[in-house]
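Quick one, tokens below:
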């Protein structure tokens, strides 16, 4: 996955926006003000921090050692850092981004979730 593909995919979700609260180089992708993906898109290798179910996070780290690691500068129980341009299939990276978005949306107040469902 290229940086452009990662950015486009993150922004393809309903109400997703890109923000730069930390520095102009670090892209933070949010939904309703809540972070679901964070990446320094110019870094090589390309990595992205993604929210993950704690049990899945541990499983993924074991299955993809070195490519999925505890979230850098994040809560290690709920976040993974995923190498997006390496040995992981693009399909899996897309699934992990989508899962992160879905987890964040599920944690939003009901009214915010309902607003996302409206066209």
């Amino acid at each position: 996955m290229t940086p452009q593909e990662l950015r486009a995919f993150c922004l393809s979700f309903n109400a997703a926006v890109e923000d730069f609260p930390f520095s102009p180089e670090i892209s933070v992708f949010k939904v309703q003000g809540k972070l679901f993906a964070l990446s320094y898109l110019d870094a090589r290798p390309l990595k992205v921090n993604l929210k993950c179910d704690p049990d899945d996070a541990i499983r993924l780290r074991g299955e993809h050692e070195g490519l999925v690691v505890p979230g850098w500068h994040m809560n290690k129980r709920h976040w993974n850092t995923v190498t997006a341009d390496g040995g992981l299939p693009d399909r899996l990276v897309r699934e992990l981004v989508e899962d992160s978005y879905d987890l964040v949306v599920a944690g939003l107040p009901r009214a915010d979730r309902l607003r996302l469902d409206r066209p």
